[in-house]
Amino acid sequence: MRFGGALQAAVVLATALWATPLAAKKKDHPTFHVKAFENIPRNVNYFSDSDTVLFHDTDANNVYLSHDHGVKWERVDAVPEGRAWLLYMHVFDPNRAYILTEGTTHFKTSDRGKTWDKFKTSADTSAFRGDILQFHATDPDRILFNGMRCDGFLCQEVALYTTDGFETPAKELRSNTNGCWWAKSSDLFTTGSEDLDKNRVLCIVRDAFSPFKQDQRLLISDNFFSPSHESSDIQEFEPNLDMDKPVQGVVNVAVVKKYLLAATSSMNTDEMALFVTDDTKRWHRAVFPASHDDHDHRVLQEAYTVLESTNYSIQIDVMTTRPSNPMGVLFTSNSNGTYFTENIPHTNRNSRGHVDFEKITGIQGVFLVNKVDNWEEVAKKGSAKKKLVTEITFDDGRTFESVTADGKRIHLHSVTELSNVGRVFSSPAPGLLMGIGNKGEHLKDYWEDGDLYVSDDAGVTWKKALDGPHKYEFGDQGSILVAIRDSQEADVGEISYSLDHGLTWTKQALPDGLKIRPYILTTTQESASLKFLLIGMTETSPRWRVISIDFEGLHEATCGKDDMEEWFARVDKDGKPTCLMGHTQSFQRRKKEAKCFLKQEFKHAVAKTEDCECTDMDYECDFNFVREDGKCVQKGPIIPPEGACRNAKPDDTFKGTSGYRKIPGNTCKPTKEMDEKYKEVDRKCSEIVGAPPTGPATDEIEQTRNVFEGDWDGWDKHYLERGESSSTEGETIIMRGRTSTKVGPVYVTEDHGKTWKAPKELEEEKIQYIIPHAYFKDMVFFITSGKKVIYTADRGRTFHSFKAPNELDPDVFPLAFHPDKKNWLIWNGRKCEDSNDCYGVASWSKDGGDHWQTAAKSSRRCEFTGSSAYKYPNRKQEQIICLKHQKEGKAKENPMVLVSTDDWFDNEEVRAENVKGFATMAEFIVVATSNPANETLQASASLDGVTFADARFPHGFDVPHQHIYTVLDSSTHAVNLFVATDMDGGYCNFGTVLKSNSNGTSYVVSAKNVNCNEAAYVDFEKVAGLEGVALVNVVANPNEKTSAPKKLQTKITHNDGAQWAYLAPPADDEFGKFPCHSDGDEKCALHLQGYTERRLRGDGNTYSSETAVGIMFAWGNVGDRLGPRKDWDTFMTTDAGLTWKRVKRGQWTWAVGDQGGIIVLVQTTASSSPEKTKNLVYSLDQGKTWKEHEFASEEVEVWDVTTLRSGGSRNFLLWGKDSEGAFTLNLDFSGFSERVCKYDDDAEKSDYYLWSPKHPMQPDGCLFGHVSQYLRKKADRKCYNDFRLQPLYGKQNCTCTRADFECDYNYELDAFGQCSLVPGLSPKDPVEWCKQNPEAIEYHEPTGYRRIPLTTCAGGRQLDKESRTHSCPGHEDEYERRHGASGVAVFFAVTIPFTLAAAAGWYVWRHWNGKFGRIRLGEQGGTVFEADQPWVRYPVIALSAVAAVVMSLPVVAGAVWRSAKGMFGAVGIGGGAGAGDGRGRWSRLGGGGGTRRFTTRDSFARGGDYTIVDDDEGELLGEDSDEDV
C-alpha cells in the first residue's frame, strides 16, 4: 500500500469528474517493466503528486531514483558511493528530500530528485536517535537537525537549525539536547500567534550534572536559544507542564494533529506522565480513569501507543498485561486532550507496541479493531494462545459490530501481522476496503487459512474475493484493485486485478516467466494512479526485482458524469443516509460496473457533509463514568470546572457533569430535548479529584497500630519508593517477620502501615528472598526455594510467576536488571550434574521472565551495562558484560575472563583475561585483573565496555601486593577506587582512596588510611542530595601494631575530596559540657559512627536524606577519637556538616520526613541503654525545638522507626514488640498542616527561602564552577511540602579556576602537580577539533589541560586555551585578519616577556619558601607556577625549575618516609566528573577478606550513593600544610 502521506486528510477538490473523454487505443493487459537489484530495496518513497519514486539500499548505502514510476532507475550519483546513511522525505513539501551521511556533509533536492545539492552541518548525524530532521509545517525552509559531537568516547547530542533550507550552513540551536521540535510541527497545531508559530522551538535538554533521563527538562525558545537584546543570557524558559510548575524527566515530545504531548519519567517507576497542550502555553497532565479490577490504567514506559487520532481527540492504547503476550485498553480523550475515557478493553498488541487498530481513510468515526476474546485466560497465563476477533465501529468507538461476509462472521489480520506497507485495509479510495482473514469463531493462521476479502461500503458488508493470502493495492480512486498471492517461496508468477470493486478478477502473468516471493506492492500516496510498483525476491542473482505495472489503456474512456454515483458512508436498511458523528457523509465515486477510468492522478476524493439534529447516539460516558445496563455510572472522582471548589468546604456544590458528554468531534445540531436531558447537575466538592480535606488541621499525631501473629525478633522490610510520574499517592511497604531460624508470611501495605494484607498468592510459597527491582520499585520478585519466581509489577496489587531457567547459586545475587528496560532480566544461577559438580549459568529474558535464553555457561556473574544515560557509540543499550571461566568444564587451569556482547550473545568478545572481578559504578566499568607472576592486582576502566585502559596510579603511590580494590560510588564523573594498603591475614585494615579523571584512567590520592573492615567495607559516606560533600573515618594510628585498637577519626570534605577537615565540636548545651573545644583538629573534634560500625550492616540509618538537603544525623562523641558505643550521643547538622549540635543524650534512631519538615527521634532497644520506651520526640522546625509524644500506655521494645527514604512522606512507622507480640505503629503527621507550601518570588510571601551549601575551602563557595541553591521551608510556616517538589532551585555560575580543569587525554599529573604527557603517547590531534567545529577559525595547541565535564564555570582561567593558536584548515585568511599585528606590537611582544621573566625569576628565587611541590588536592593555584598574576607564566617556569633542582634536595632528603606514603601523589585536579547510578551499592573487586554474604538489594543499599574519602593533609603535607603555596 502507500507510503508517506497515507495518514493525511483528503482535502483537494478534483477537477470536473465528467471531463471530456480522451481517445486512446484499448489494451487487454497491463504493461510490465522489470529492473534487477542485488540488495533489498527499503524505505520506498514517492514524491507526492508525481511518478517519481526512490528507495534506499541500506546494505550498500546507496539511494536509487526513478522519474517514471519505476520503469528506469538510476543511482543518485551526487552522493558518493556507499555514503547514503539515511533517506528523509520532507513531510510538508512534496518536492524535497534529504540524504544524510554519517558525517557532516549531506545532500538535498528541492525538485523531486532532478538535482541534488550538497550541504554541511557542524555536527555528525546522531547515532542515538532516528528522528534526525524535524520540519516546520508551514515554512519548508525551517528545519531542525538533531546531531552529535564526540570527544573521545563521550558523545553529546546537539541540535542545529536552518531557516533557508540549508542554503547556508546550519547554525547551532542548543547543545546537550535529547531532541528538538518545532512547535508548528503539524498543520493543525498553533500557538495562537503567527510569530510564535514561526519561531518557537521545544528542546529536551539533558542536565549538565546528571546523565539520567529522569533529570532531563523541556525548554522552549522563541529566538533559537540566542541572547536577547535586553540580556546576554540565553532566551529560554521551562514551561509549567503540571499546571503551575515545571516537571523534569521529559523523555519525548510528539505532535498529534492539533495536540502536542510531552512524556516524562522518574526514578523508581516505569509509569510515565503524559502532558498535553494545544498551544504550548497551557499544559495539563493527561488523566486516565480509575483502574478496574481486571486491568490497570497506568501509562508505562514502552507500554503505550499513541494511535492515529482525530482532529478533535487523542487515542492511546495502554498495555495492561505482561509483555510476552500483550493486551491493551484503548482510550479516547476529550476535545482538549486532557481527560481520557475507556473505549475498548482487551485490544490486541504485539511486543513492538503495534496495535490492531486502523481508521478508515477519509470516513469519520469508522475503524477496525482486533480484540482478545479469551482475555481472562491470557491475563492469567502468559503462554496462552490468543483468540482474536475482529470488530468494527461506525460511531468512533461508542458501539462495535461484528465483521461479516455472506452473513457469517469473519476476522481480519491487522497491524500486528503487517504483510505489506502503509495502511492495512483502506486507502483514499472512498469506501473501498480489502483485508486477509477467515470465517469462524476467531482469527486463524495467515498462511493456512487466510483469504482476500473486499468491502465497497466502508466495512458494513464484505465478500470473499480470492483464495489464499494476498498483498493488495488500490488505484484510480478504487476503479482498479490489484493483488498478488503472498508466499514464503519465490513461486508466484502472476498478479490479479479487478475493475469492478472486486466482483470479478483477471489474472496476468509476470513477464518472461518471472517468479518471485512478493515483498511490497504499492502505488502513489493518493491511490489515484493507474501505475503500481511490485518488489519481490527471486532465486537467481541478482536476487531482487522491482517491477513497474501500468494499467493505462485497459479502458479507452475517461469517466463522465453518468459513470459516477453519490455514495453515502452509512445508510439504513432502506438505503437512506444515516447520521454518523452528527452528520451524513457522502462521496462521488465511479460506479463499479462503469467501463472507464477516472484518470485524475494526484487528486483526492472529497467528502460532502450535512449536519443532523442531536440524538442519544451522539453522547457517550464522561470521564470516570462507565456504561452499565445502558446508563453511565460513576467509577471515579469528578473533574470540576476551572476555579470550582477553591477554598471550598466538602459539602459545597458546583455545577458538574451529568455523567454524559457529546462525543468529541461530533457536529450534531443541538436540540432543547437533548440539552435538557444532558445538562449539568449539582455536585459536591467532596466528589472531585483532589477533594479538599475533610476538616481543619488538628495539630495531633494520628496513630494506627497493627499486631502480627508469631514470635518475631525483627522485620525484613522493603519500602517501594514511588516516582514523581506515579499517578497514585500510595506508600507501599512489603515486609515479613523473622527470627534467626525462620521467616514469617509476607505482608503488603499501600498506606504506610495503616492496613496490611497477606497476599493469597504467596501464602503457600517458601519465599527465600524478596528482591525489589533495582530501578523500577513498582516491581518486586519473590524467590522461592525452587525455580518458581513470583513477582508483582504494580506494587502488590496483582501477582504473576515465571520459572527460573536454573537453580539458585547461594554465592551469587540471582537477578541483574536493566536501568531502562523493566522486563529485561539476567538470571545468574547454577546447574549441577551432581552434588559436587556445579557450574554457573547466566540466562537472559526480554519479557519479564516468560522466556529465557542461555547467555553464558561456567559464568560467575553477568550484568547489563547498556544504558540510555551514557552517550558512547560503542555502548549499545543491549550491552551485557559477563565474568566467566575461559573454558567450560573442570579444567585445572581455567582463569576467569571478561566478555561482552551487544547482540544477546550471538557474538561475544573477550575484553580482559585473568579477571578477579568487575564493578559498574555510574558510567564506569572497572575491572580487576590478576598478575600471577607477582600475585597482585591491576585495575582498568572503560567508558564504553569495549576499550579498557589500565589505571595509572599517582607518582609515588606503590603498593607491592594489591589484593583488594573497592569501587566507591560517586556523582562527579570520576571513579573513586579504594585500594587496601594494610592487610592482616588476608583481611583489610585500612587503605587509600584514589580519585580518577573523567575517563577513569589517571588517578590522584584522595584519602589515606581510610578505615575498612574484614570484608573490605569502607568507612565513608556521601551526603545525599549535595555535590561534593562526604564524611570518612580514617585510622589515625596506622603505624602501630595490628593488635593495637584502631584510633578512628572523622573528617568531612566539601569539595569532592580535594580537601578534608575535622568536625568542630558543638558548643556546650543543656545536656552538659564536652571534654574539649576547638575549631576541629586531630586532638579535639566530633567523631561519628561510620558504616563499619553500623548496628545492622547495610540496613542502618544513613546520615542524610536525598530531599532533606543539608540535614544530617549521626551518633558519635567529642574527643581525639571515636570512643566506645556507650559514650555516643545523637548529633545533628542543618548546614551539611559545617556546624553540629547535640540533640539527645545516648543513641536515638532518627527518621526524616516531609523533606526535612518533620523529624522523629526514638530510643530503640538495640541502640539505647533502656530496653523499652513509650515516648518519642519530634520536631517540625528542622530541629530548633522538640516535642515529646507518648505513643504507648506502657513501655515497649522499639526496633526501628522508618519512613520513605526519599524523605517525602508525612507518615512514619514504629517497629517493635510488646506484650501482645510484634507490632507496627503508623504515625501520621498530616494533621499538623492542611495546605501545600508555595514558592513565591516575593520572599515575604514565599513559604521557602533559598539556601546554598558552603564549600569553605573553595573560593566564593564554588564547586564545579557554580553555587547551588536549594529550596528550604521556612521553619515558622504551617504547610507541607509537595511530594514532587524538587529541592534544587538553581545554580549560579562562577569564574573558572584551576579546580575546573583536569589533565587532557594522554596527559597525567607528574610529581610536581603539572599535567605532563605520558611517555610514549601523543597529544590528541587538535585539528580534529576543527573538523568537529567547522565554523571555528582557530585552534589552540594542547596545553595538557581540559575542562572538567561537570563544571559550568565561565570566564576566569582558561587553562585549555593558554597556548599558541593556529588557523583551522580553510580559515587561514580569517585567522590572519584576526591576529595581524603591527611592527610596534611585535617589538613589545618580544621584548617585554624577557624583561618580566628575568624579574619574576629573581623574585621567585628570592621569595621561595621551600615548599616546592606541596600541592594540595584541588588547590586553586595548582602549583607555584600557576599563580594568577599575569606576569608569572611560562618564562617563569624555566627559571624556577632551575632553582627547584637545587632547593628541593633538602626537602626530599628530609622527608624520605613521606615519599613512600605518596607525598607527591597528593596533587589534584579539584574536580573530576560523573554521576552515581542511584543504586547506593558497594562493588568489591579482588581477593582477600571473607566471602560476601548474600543480601537483598534493599537491605544492602543504604539510601545514598557512596563517594570519596579523605587524605590526611597533616601526614601528607606536613604541619604547615594549610598555608598557601
From TrEMBL:
<dbReference type="InterPro" id="IPR050310">
    <property type="entry name" value="VPS10-sortilin"/>
</dbReference>
<dbReference type="GO" id="GO:0006896">
    <property type="term" value="P:Golgi to vacuole transport"/>
</dbReference>
<keyword id="KW-0325">Glycoprotein</keyword>
<feature type="transmembrane region" description="Helical">
    <location>
        <begin position="1384"/>
        <end position="1405"/>
    </location>
</feature>
<protein>
    <recommendedName>
        <fullName>Vacuolar protein sorting/targeting protein 10</fullName>
    </recommendedName>
</protein>
<keyword id="KW-1133">Transmembrane helix</keyword>
<dbReference type="GO" id="GO:0006623">
    <property type="term" value="P:protein targeting to vacuole"/>
</dbReference>
<dbReference type="Pfam" id="PF15901">
    <property type="entry name" value="Sortilin_C"/>
</dbReference>
<keyword id="KW-0333">Golgi apparatus</keyword>
<comment type="function">
    <text>Functions as a sorting receptor in the Golgi compartment required for the intracellular sorting and delivery of soluble vacuolar proteins, like carboxypeptidase Y (CPY) and proteinase A. Executes multiple rounds of sorting by cycling between the late Golgi and a prevacuolar endosome-like compartment.</text>
</comment>
<keyword id="KW-0813">Transport</keyword>
<feature type="compositionally biased region" description="Acidic residues">
    <location>
        <begin position="1508"/>
        <end position="1525"/>
    </location>
</feature>
<feature type="domain" description="VPS10">
    <location>
        <begin position="52"/>
        <end position="687"/>
    </location>
</feature>
<dbReference type="GO" id="GO:0005829">
    <property type="term" value="C:cytosol"/>
</dbReference>
<dbReference type="InterPro" id="IPR006581">
    <property type="entry name" value="VPS10"/>
</dbReference>
<dbReference type="Pfam" id="PF15902">
    <property type="entry name" value="Sortilin-Vps10"/>
</dbReference>
<keyword id="KW-0675">Receptor</keyword>
<dbReference type="InterPro" id="IPR031778">
    <property type="entry name" value="Sortilin_N"/>
</dbReference>
<keyword id="KW-0472">Membrane</keyword>
<feature type="region of interest" description="Disordered">
    <location>
        <begin position="1505"/>
        <end position="1525"/>
    </location>
</feature>
<feature type="transmembrane region" description="Helical">
    <location>
        <begin position="1436"/>
        <end position="1457"/>
    </location>
</feature>
<feature type="signal peptide">
    <location>
        <begin position="1"/>
        <end position="24"/>
    </location>
</feature>
<dbReference type="GO" id="GO:0016020">
    <property type="term" value="C:membrane"/>
</dbReference>
<keyword id="KW-0653">Protein transport</keyword>
<dbReference type="GO" id="GO:0005794">
    <property type="term" value="C:Golgi apparatus"/>
</dbReference>
<keyword id="KW-0732">Signal</keyword>
<feature type="domain" description="VPS10">
    <location>
        <begin position="731"/>
        <end position="1373"/>
    </location>
</feature>
<keyword id="KW-0677">Repeat</keyword>
<dbReference type="InterPro" id="IPR015943">
    <property type="entry name" value="WD40/YVTN_repeat-like_dom_sf"/>
</dbReference>
<dbReference type="InterPro" id="IPR031777">
    <property type="entry name" value="Sortilin_C"/>
</dbReference>
<dbReference type="GO" id="GO:0006895">
    <property type="term" value="P:Golgi to endosome transport"/>
</dbReference>
<keyword id="KW-0812">Transmembrane</keyword>
